[in-house]
Design a protein that fits this description.
This protein is α+β, with helices and mostly antiparallel strands. About 30% of the residues lie in helices and about 15% in strands. It has three helices and four strands; from the N terminus they run H-H-E-E-E-E-H. The strands form two sheets. A two-stranded antiparallel sheet has the order 1-2. It has a two-stranded antiparallel ribbon with strand order 3-4. The radius of gyration is 14 Å and the shape is globular. The chain starts with a helix and ends with a helix.
């Protein structure tokens, strides 16, 4: 839901990224992916923290959606899944 400009600044801070970040300012993706929240006052349409790894054909191949017992993902698992999906194991 962040803007294109905030994504550009984020990627620059990391020294660049080998993939694109999507801007969902109109909240269409968070709704379609089922991660839209309406329980935070003042932040209508805010997404649940989530990660979707999408292959070059546009198919979602790996998903992580925040749960109370797992507030942050296992980043090694995320990177491993991304590399495997990209064919770079």
């Amino acid at each position: 839901m962040d803007s294109v400009f905030s994504h550009q600044a984020f990627a620059e801070q990391l020294g660049g990224l080998p993939f694109e970040l999507l801007a969902d300012f109109e909240r269409q993706m968070v709704t379609a992916y089922g991660v839209r929240r309406e329980d935070v006052a003042g932040y209508s349409g805010m997404p649940t923290r989530s990660i979707f790894i999408v292959d070059p054909e546009g198919v979602i191949r790996w998903t992580w959606i925040r749960r109370k017992d797992e507030p942050l993902p296992d980043y090694d698992e995320v990177l491993s899944a991304a590399r495997e999906i990209a064919g770079r194991t």
